[in-house]
Design a protein that fits this description.
Pantoate--beta-alanine Ligase, Chain: A,domain 2; single chain; 1 helix; five-stranded antiparallel sheet; 144 residues
Length: 144
């Protein structure tokens, strides 16, 4: 019998198994981390859209009511919202508005929040008083 016809030796098979045993856990960790990161990014994106929708809803209703309010986005939703509205004593018909979207992820409470100023007539100032339309300019709080 020629050497080319014999196939793999036991030593070659053992070396291949050792290499596979060394590389496979690293590959599995990479897949798990990737899936977890994708899930986190998906929830944060959903929270950002819900935050924007809630803020737009408040703008459409006109002058916000002072105080705090909270709720959820429907039955079975992972997300809840909370708002805080305070009038500014220095400027009439201008309100300090904070909107938070919260969810539970991996046993940890996550949050995405935005703070803006809103005029009493339904017109919104920019984030933290800047010019332009109000809206979520970036996450704040412990969720990030």
């Amino acid at each position: 019998m020629r050497r080319a016809d014999r196939g793999f030796t036991l030593l070659e098979v053992l070396v291949a198994m050792a290499i596979l045993a060394a590389v496979l856990p690293t590959v599995m960790i990479a897949f798990t981390t990737s899936a977890r990161s994708r899930s986190t990014a998906e929830r944060e994106t959903t929270a950002a859209y819900l935050l924007r929708d809630k803020l737009s809803e408040m703008e459409a209703l006109g002058a916000p009511e002072e105080g705090e309010d909270q709720g959820d986005f429907g039955e079975g939703s992972l997300f809840t919202w909370a708002t805080s509205v305070a009038s500014l004593t220095e400027i009439e018909e201008l309100y300090d508005v904070t909107v938070r979207v919260q969810w539970l992820e991996a046993g940890e409470q996550r949050e995405l929040a935005v703070r803006t100023y809103m005029a009493g007539g339904g017109q919104a100032g920019g984030q933290d008083g800047g010019a332009g339309q109000g809206g979520p300019g970036g996450p704040q709080g412990p969720g990030r």
